[in-house]
Design a protein that fits this description.
The structure holds two protein chains of two kinds. Chain A has a domain of 265 residues. In chain A, helix 2 runs antiparallel to helix 9, helix 4 packs antiparallel against helix 12 and helix 4 packs across helix 14. Chain A is built from 18 helices and six strands. Chain A is mainly alpha-helical. Chain B is mainly alpha-helical. Chain B has one domain: ABC transporter involved in vitamin B12 uptake, BtuC. Chain B has 15 helices and four strands. In chain B, the strands form two sheets. In chain B, strands 1-2 form a two-stranded antiparallel sheet. In chain B, strands 3-4 form a two-stranded antiparallel ribbon. The radius of gyration of chain B is 23 Å and the shape is globular. Classes of the chains: A mainly alpha, B mainly alpha. The interface between A and B is large, with 46 and 41 residues.
Amino acid sequence: MISKFQNNDRLLMLLFIIAVLAGPIILAPFGAGYPDLLQRFCIFGIFAIGFNILFGLTGYLSFGHAAFLGVGSYSAVWMFKLLTMNVIPGLILAVIVSGLFALVIGFISLRRSGIYFSILTLAFAQMSFSLAYSVLTPITNGETGLQLTLQDPRVLDGVNTTGSLPSTNLFGLAMNATQKVEFLGMTLQFNAGYYFCGLVLILAFYLSMRIFRSPFGLMLRAIKTNQNRLNYTGVNTRPYTLAAFVISGMYAGVAGGLMACTDPLAGAERMQWTASGEVVLMTILGGAGTLLGPVIGAGFIKYFENIFSKINDNVLHGWFSFMPDGLEDIIVGILYYFVGKGWLLTLGLLFMMVVIFLPGGLIQGLTHIVERFQSKDKKQDASVPSDTDNAVKPAE
Amino acid sequence: MDAILLQILNGLDKGSAYALIALGLTLIFGTLGVVNFAHGALFMIGAFCVVTLQRILNLSTVTLDPTKTDFLGNPLTIKTPYIVSWFGESMGASIINWSVPLALIVTLPIMLLFGFIMERGLIKHFYKRPHADQILVTFGLAIVLQEIIKAFYGANPIPTPAPEVFRGSFDFGVLIGMAENAVIYPYWRLVYFAFSALVIASVFAFLQFTTFGMVVRAGMADRETVGLLGINIDKRFTIMFGVAAAVAGLAGVMYTPINSPNYHMGMDFLVLSFVVVVVGGMGSLSGAVLSGFMLGILESFASMNEVKGFFEALYLPSIDQIIIYLVAIIILLTRPRGLMGRAGVMEE
């Protein structure tokens, strides 16, 4: 089934669009149907798709992508402060600024490859983080983070007489407007901000699909497979990797901009290297080098982060109350370390498991399972091309 | 003059920590060819060995003293650590007082064992995998270790004082004939520097003057040939991994009085230590040590008021926060092999 998806872009795209548009309905039964989480799915999905264009295709492992996310957030918030609360100019500025920023960092970092590249990007990101925290305080507002105030000019919006902070909007449609619908006993929340993020996600996904299928994408894959051979055949790989780096930086900028659109503030902690690590986790977990993987990884991590961190020992006791008392306490005592505040522990373990046993991520796992079922059905049909071609080949 | 001396001294202790961690990283990289992102976590585990030892030493019997009352009128509770009741008043108290140096003895075997288990259990399976995979799996391990420590010890830094003898500061300036109070330096930082110099020297001596070290160096140069000569080089490399883990752990132990251990100290140091390794040259032990001290001292120079003033005069932001990264970027672009990197190591 999955192989059919991957071989049929139009079907995949259609299903993706349906899934995004029906997100609030599909996810409501899982307790994830509220706007805040749905928006985060989309935003981190975009972030991970962008990271995947660099890491999944070229194999260059950047450990500093959060810097672009932060820059995107800052520029969007500045647009909200100075020009208008409409999200479009903010997003455009976020893309432009993060693209330029990525161009500069990429131009320098891409002169080296492998681990050196990882460390260079890490160094740049940490540098931006430190700068945002300390000397760039006039622009970034340091530790407090950049926030909207009533005194902001907002040239296009006219005078604010309401006395409260305006909310971000899309030509008058407020981003936090939510339509609640009762359906089969569930409250479905259709949020304007989510649909805006969702549309951008669909666009981002479509673009990434086009890149994957284009000659440019093929060139990027060639760089991952054997950069030396390309160099020896006289191909200058630098422009290609730089283009991939800038594109993925712009994706991160869009994600940062959307973050500011849904919640108009920006802080330096968004640029810290743990944030860069998170997007690496998402991409690897879902499956680097696959189209759908990063979105799934992002959704997976954000969903379980939300669900797991809400579980406390009362909930656990509720689950295991059918057991004898002593056993219940032991099990709850052990599990307690893995949920709630200990969610990161679970994530770390899961991530290690994925890297060790399933380098292609969840997508690869799904493919294996599906293949096993298929091979049971039709054992004679061995000539079906394996779609692990699309899955990640470990980066050099 | 005194300001410069003071900054050099200030840079030494941080530089020592960088140098020790970078030394371990380079040992692992040079022998096994593995990029270990969990090395900072080993540093942190060393630090938390001190915390654990301190807690064990302070396990007490609680007795009520009915003759005295506390300010609420309840009978006064007296806590007597077991150590005190076993070894007597003065001996017990001084054992608790010296818990940080004592932790060295406990930490060494723990870290060696930890290193062996980590190498045999996890790293071994990643020799042939690409560097990106090694980074990712050790990064995952670092998160796991960090979260385990957080679950057991909480998120707040835990103060671990140095032995009382070393708690004060001394006037370094008077020692070399300068005015009084010109160069004041805490004793413990000097101890830390001396300790790290000792550890670095012994690691180098171990590699340079023992047969074991000779084999390891040969293996670093050409693993395959050494293996073909019938030497079990894998076993020796595993031991070197243990040694590298122990160096990181001991560095963490001695660093606790300078900086109270918290669960994310490993990550904080790791990023900088990687930069140190890269600046020194991947795979070069002396390069790692040299650049560790150099960057530590540079960092403290950049935070001098005079330097800050100089940059302000040029309308530039002060660079004390980013000097290390800046140096790393410049070095990587101008001298891609690092300060003392050998040809052919990690060059694509």
